[in-house]
Structures are given as structure tokens and as C-alpha cells.
Specification:
This protein has four helices and no strands. The chain has 122 residues and is mainly α. The protein starts with a helix and ends with a helix.
């Protein structure tokens, strides 16, 4: 389990920025019962991406590391799901913000997938 310090730090920063960007974005959404509920889920999952990545970096075993990376990937995928459900009322600016966040969630999923493949020696 070799991890380069700079890359590890960059991904920790990137996942933190993703969670912050989600929080900034949701403040601009129209209020509705659906959005309020979906936003709660989105905030949880977006923060969990980075929290589990940090836990992976502090893991005591290879098995724990792999499990935490899998959870980070799952939470990024879940964040993308909640982003899809949000009602942006067809506003172009909100649509662009959502697309940007969905792209970042997808990229994070791909990064965690690559980490898993490397960790499993594939």
C-alpha cells in the first residue's frame, strides 16, 4: 500500500472542495419539499466522499483501505444520483452548476475505481 503524499493530499483537498462546492450550489436552489429532502441526502453523501477517503489513508490494514475507497466511490456515485433529482426549474445557470458537480462526482468515482484496481493488482 504505497501512497504518494502529494497526490494523497491533492485528493483530500479535491474531495473537500467537492463537498464545499455542493454546499454553495444547494444554497442557490429553489426551495421545495423535494429539493429540501434531496439536498439533505446530497450534503451527507458529498461530505462522506472525502471523509471516507481520509479514513482510507489512516487505515490499519489493506482490507480496511480497500473498503473505505469502495465507500468513497459509492458516495460519489450517490452524490451524482441526488444531483440528478434536484429541481433546477430549467434555469440555465443552475443546470450548468449541476452538470459541473455531476462531472466532478464522475471523475472522483473514476479515480477511486483506479485506486481500487491498483490496490487489487489489476
Amino acid at each position: 500500500m504505497t501512497r504518494e503524499g502529494a497526490k494523497q493530499y491533492d485528493l483530500e483537498e479535491r474531495t473537500l472542495q467537492f463537498a464545499k462546492d455542493v454546499r454553495t450550489f444547494v444554497k442557490t436552489l429553489p426551495r421545495s419539499i423535494g429539493n429540501d429532502e434531496d439536498v439533505r441526502q446530497l450534503i451527507r453523501s458529498s461530505g462522506s466522499v472525502g471523509a471516507n477517503y481520509i479514513e482510507a489513508n489512516e487505515s490499519l490494514s489493506r482490507k480496511d483501505f480497500i473498503m473505505r475507497i469502495k465507500i468513497s466511490r459509492k458516495e460519489a456515485k450517490e452524490s451524482r444520483y441526488w444531483l440528478c433529482l434536484l429541481d433546477t426549474t430549467g434555469k440555465i445557470e443552475l443546470e450548468k452548476g449541476r452538470e459541473s458537480l455531476m462531472q466532478e462526482a464522475t471523475e472522483l468515482m473514476n479515480i477511486f475505481g483506479a485506486i481500487l484496481r491498483k490496490s487489487n493488482g489489476q
